[in-house]
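re: that chain from earlier
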Amino acid sequence: MGHIQDNAEYAVKKALQKFLGHDNNFFGAFADHLDDGTPVKATVSIDGGDDPPSTLTITVDFTGTGTQHPER
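^ sequence. v structure.
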């Protein structure tokens, strides 16, 4: 199972590598609202590191997103 997980991680990093610019980094931001007006915000930062895709890291930050809605 470990091999399958390692392979999946590598495949995702390889796909994300396509977003890297000439400086070996990527930054993107998204903002929208749910039907009730609740904000949904996300920023995505990808750092290729010294030897992408093996050193690639990604950070997704949801700061500014509204609170979780209660279950119904």
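The beta strands are 25-33, 39-47, 57-61.
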